[in-house]
Design goal:
- 2 copies of one chain form a homodimer.
- Chain A is of the alpha+beta class.
- Chain A is built from 8 helices and 10 strands.
- In chain A, helix 5 crosses helix 6.
- Chain A is elongated and about 55 Å long.
- The relative contact order of chain A is 0.13.
- The structure holds a DNA duplex (30 and 30 nucleotides).
Chain lengths: ~230, ~230
DNA sequence: CCAAGAAGGTGACAAATGTCATAGTTCTCC
DNA sequence: GGAGAACTATGACATTTGTCACCTTCTTGG
């Protein structure tokens, strides 16, 4: 079908693939395979060699790293339009993160050969990838600062605002991306119980409301003030 | 003098500039200026627009970000051979970090024009820069995990091992790069008093020895075990 | 539809870390 | 070479966060 061709793929507009030439895109499209992944399934695991990258057409994947004490730290949530695994393909190292679907996903797998040849011949593409990676690096720096300088409470509040801004809310005012309490604690970098406690507290103070595992933001301004330190 | 030409510069071997052609290097060399910076002086500050990148010939610079509560978080220590400021030049954003000399420094300033034209025309160079950035990103991911999953004690121990491995020790067994207690706490992401307390504890346990602000590693194995969680 | 397991929730307590006060030490610059 | 500033050090205490134990509530597969 026509819309399964990269040339016509909308999500491409959001990532580095837009810098590819028509011919390069054709090659990529011919070599790619489309995959459907159910919530909770692994895309790849830390330490695995990646033979290509994943381009997210739909759904969300968490990128996380297991620490020595057995806890996962979620480093990034990748959604529609984002490319996963490029870092490993570029450095030809095995993956430093695991990728697991947080919701049902649809994605394209692009073998590394198509990527590498374009990287070596099309400076515009390489530059575009570089810009994206520079952006990711800046975000990572920000996360480092937040981790070390903000309290768990502030980080939880920030996470909710992030989820709202990046994934939106439904008509009932609930965050569209529903994470388990454990995932939330792994984003924030804290114990699950601590995250739950803070969620309860926010609920009592009227900052958020919940329904099952769904969470909705009720007072964005106050949450933001909390993040900024009153 | 001859050794002030990029073509002959040794530190170039360690960074992306080695992927430049002879002609490109000549242009860079003609446009660059050499600077000497004293310990404690600022290279640039968060929010500043950078008109180029800095290539470190000697000395060490800390890259840090100010958090809302007034504390600095040191995100990276850049030393001989490393290029500072490339991220901002690539994304054409203002700097997200401040750079301050931790020791006396000698460095070259390369105007962004020389960099940008090469980025657009020499895929090898762009790819090389990309590889370096991919490496930095991986390191940043690791730092995030450490920050959230390791105790302050583990992070202090890790910092000392890092300083030994990256900057070495002198004949008396002291770390060559001497940081103030405050800088150490800003690398680790903790209060200065906490860092000092842990240093005292390590000293008592015979893991390190000190002389003034100088610190030497006495039991590397035990420190490593501590980092790994016993 | 129900049992079993997973996920959510809470209390009590322990451990880690931050804060404030204060004193000793080293460094720097005139 | 000494006064003042900046840095290092330590105690006492408050706060934050983690851990363990236990219960409740969902969810899901047979």
């Amino acid at each position: 079908m026509e819309n399964s061709r990269c040339e016509n793929c909308i999500v491409r507009q959001f990532n580095s693939l837009r810098a590819m030439s028509k011919e390069e895109l054709k090659k990529v499209s011919d070599s790619k395979t489309t995959k459907t992944i159910k919530k909770g399934e692994l895309l790849f695991e830390e330490g695995e060699k990646l033979n290509g990258v994943f381009c997210v057409r739909n759904g969300v994947s968490k990128l996380s790293k297991l620490s020595a004490n057995g806890k996962d730290q979620i480093v990034k949530l990748a959604t529609k339009g984002e490319v996963i695994g490029q870092r490993s393909v570029i450095t030809e190292e095995s993956a430093n993160l695991s990728a697991m679907a947080v919701s049902d996903m649809e994605l394209c797998f692009i073998p590394k050969e198509s990527i590498n040849t374009t990287l070596q011949s099309n400076p515009n593409f390489t530059l575009e990838v570089l810009r994206h990676m520079a952006h990711d690096l800046k975000e990572a720096d920000d996360v480092i600062v937040n981790m070390s300088q903000k309290t768990v409470k502030q980080r939880v509040a920030e996470a909710f605002l992030y989820l709202k801004n990046n994934f939106g809310e439904d008509q009932d005012g609930f965050l569209i991306l529903t994470l388990s309490r454990e995932d939330i604690s792994n984003v924030v970098g804290t114990a699950t119980e601590s995250a739950i406690r803070i969620i309860s507290e926010f609920k009592k103070k009227g900052l958020i409301h919940t329904s099952g595992k769904k969470i909705g933001i009720r007072d964005e301004k106050k949450l933001q003030e909390l993040v900024d330190g009153f």
